[in-house]
Amino acid sequence: MKNPILIFSSILSVAAISFSFVNKPENRKAPVVESASTAVSNPADVAKTHDHDAEVGSLSTTLFTTLRLEGKGLKMPTLEAAVKGYLKLQEQGALKNSDLLTIVDFSQSSRKKRLYLLDTKNMQLLENTFVSHAKNSGVDMANDFSNVIGSEKSSLGFYLTKGTYTGKHGMSLRLSGLEKGFNDNAESRAIVVHGADYVNAGRVSSAYMGRSQGCPAVPMDDYRRIISEIKDGTALFIYSPDPTYLNNSDLLS
């Protein structure tokens, strides 16, 4: 018969060893919990975003180099913003004529030819001329913008051109503001493209170009031709490096 004391001691030893294994801390990393902020985006959405960004970059680069736009005062960031929103409007089916894109670049002096009409299909610069900003938006440089009726300030963002009419400035082009809070009061404010004798090459040597009450007015020598080219469903973009606009525009997001 085995020694009871020896058996009892063996049982205690085995129990102690088992207990030490059970309570030994494991060298494991804490499990990663994926929060909403770190969750992987829908692959289809990511691909769509990448495709859109690639298309913006490709078209912007082609236009910039082919049309030698830098030599005409247009900077790449301005063009990229214009192309980004323009392509979104194309995707949304908002444009009746998607071949044309008009850019009004308020990052430039009023004495510069800062209106550009681009034919994106045939890669042509159809127009490059002077354009006014509003009298309450600044003197030579436009730096204060508003969507408020009666403000007599320019409004930034994307517009859809509409039909023409004959008013106090002669042939004029109606504009529909497409960006809520930035320019959607354009029609209520009677913001239109029209000709103005205070916008002309003769004022380049003065302190500033003539200013409007909010309309992007163009030279009398050009206005009929420009209006006829861009009317009825093309995109017009009024740009400024204004952080409030750039950070909140749905079309640039």
Account of the protein in words:
It is built from five helices and nine strands; from the N terminus they run H-H-H-E-E-E-E-E-E-E-E-H-E-H. It starts with a helix and ends in a 7-residue tail after the last helix. The strands form two sheets. It has a seven-stranded mixed β-sheet with strand order 3-2-1-9-4-5-6. It is α+β, with helices and mostly antiparallel strands and 253 residues long. The protein is globular and about 50 Å long. Mean pLDDT is 88; it is low at 4-40.
Considering the chains and any ligands shown, give keywords for the structure.
253 residues; alpha+beta; seven-stranded mixed sheet; two-stranded parallel ribbon; 5 helices; 28% helix; 19% strand
Strand content: 15-25%
Tell me the major beta sheet: 7 strands, mixed
* Principal-axis shape: globular
Counted beta strands: 9
| Structural class by sheet pairing and helices | alpha+beta
- SSE series: HHHEEEEEEEEHEH
Q: What count of helical segments does DSSP give?
A: 5
| Helix content range | 25-40%
Computed over alpha carbons, the radius of gyration is 31 Å
